[in-house]
User: What shape does this take?
Amino acid sequence: MLAQIAPLPIPAPPSERDLAGLTVAIVGVTIISLLTLLAAGMTFLGRSRRSDAATLQACVAEAIAADVECARVDVVTTVGSSASMPPSVTLEGAVGSAAARDRALRRAEAAARRVAPRVAVIDRLTVEADRAA
Assistant: This one.
């Protein structure tokens, strides 16, 4: 006996409503992917700038510590909020003389420029002889 084979079903053509839903889903996934990549990039840049600031601070502190008269100088680094804003190094503390202050500034600027060419060195040093008077 011969068995009758049923014809294969013919799929219905997709409606405009199905295509619109698919388009919205593709656009949604694309936007979410782009936002995720942007967030990851910003996190990476933030971490990179923090490590650059630590390197900058270490180099400047080492250069200043080589001068005995400048041993009490604190080095504070600040990283700009964006890549277009250069980092800054603030020197704080007391030094024994104006000559020691000048040496500390020169050493800090030279060390900072080796790490970041556009760094700003901010002088908040006080000379003990001026403070005592």
In short: Helices lie at 16-65, 98-115, 128-132. Residues 51-132 form a domain with the Histidine-containing Protein; Chain: A; fold (CATH 3.30.1340).
